[in-house]
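Please predict the structure of the following assembly.
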Amino acid sequence: MWLKDSSIGRKFIMSISGLALVLFLLFHGCMNLVLVFSEEWYDFICGALGANWYALIGTLGLAFLVLVHFCYAIYLTIQNRAARGNDRYAVSGKKEGVEWESENMLVLGITVIGFLLLHLYNFWFKMQLAEITHGATAPVELATKGAQYVIALFTTPVSGQIYCALYLIWLCALWLHLNHGVWSALHTLGWNNLVWMKRIKVIGTIVATLVVLPFMVVVCYYLGVGIGMIC
Amino acid sequence: MDQYIDIKVRVWRQAGPKAQGHFETYELKHVFQGASFLEMIDILNEQLVAEHKDPVTYDHDCREGICGMCSMYVNGHPHGPDSAITTCQLHMRKFHDGETITVEPWRSRAFPVIKDLMVDRGAYDKIMQAGGFVSVNTGGVPDANAIPIPKPVADEAMDAASCIGCGACAAACKNGSAMLFVAAKVSQLALLPQGKIEAAARAKAMVAKMDELGFGNCTNTGACAAECPKSVSLANIARLNREFLCAKFKD
């Protein structure tokens, strides 16, 4: 199967799964942003996305995408390290125009996954899973009255601010990952040429910023609320 | 103004493909900055021969930046700390008095060291043999202007064709990927009408051979294009991806 056996096939899988996750994050970020404007609307979204069949299928699809993206990343890295050979260069100079993030995609990806586990515990475990298991993991009300829960989590003195700080670090890692990932995915799909090279990198940075910004706004807003700067 | 400088050269010495390699540091006095880097290695070798020591083995041929033989990793860069040149075009004026210059061979699983700084780049030849050509019937030579080709296309094909197959791309890549080389060789033919006929088969065959020989997966870091002595563009890699994916989806 060429999607597994050829290097471009493997990169194709990385690109497609990565771009699909970017689309999900855009959707997720927009939903989050609603919380800043209206708690009622946010609760409506929480209710609509709870344990409904389409939300469950979506969740399974996402889990599959993350798993594929992660497994292929590990597979590619093992192959790439082997291709480098046993002897490393004694001196390795800075290469002109090579982005730091492009050389550290695995580290950034693992950072994102690490925080993702915390995020799943905070939200998925206590909201969707609670609803699926009828309250076995957390009270079912959290799922339908998400706004109060989220606000409490991010504004409770000290622990709320620690959470905000952790989320900001996470979002920075995500931005760096996407700043290379988005244009690289398009390039791997063959959507690039001499004229579009610079444009596509700018598009990548814009998409990365658009994805991360809504999340940032929500975290910063509740950080402000938590420390009393925003009423 | 070029001056005479005293330098130390830290060279990778390896007796054979299976032998354990190590660095040796040699002192060179009174080296003229107008000398080329390879002339400096020649001076070092004369000194070593005079001392009844084994001279440093290294690849070189044309010494004018065309053959791509002089594969050396100098101070952390393939072809040394200058842009768009081969090692033979590097001059000692890029180094200063008292400097220690580290010289290593290409380090990539697909380019095993033969001796000292000389590596076996036969892997690139095998990729070329897999499909880097146009099949033609021998016979009368057609007129050069019989097939019109737009100037921008011809230029891009010519730029891709400037690849000399030196291996700097795979040597510079943190993934040991040969994608820039294969992309240049696929592009130079895929862009032209004569090469388009076999474009799909060529892309598939060359990529399959590249993977088989143990080169890594491209992650678009761009180190290859940054270090390429002929400034072959990263855009060629997008074209190779396009050619390969289209060919596979058509199957």
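The beta strands of chain B are 4-13, 22-32, 73-74, 77-78, 100-104, 113-115, 118-119. Chain B touches chain A through 53 residues (CB under 8 Å).
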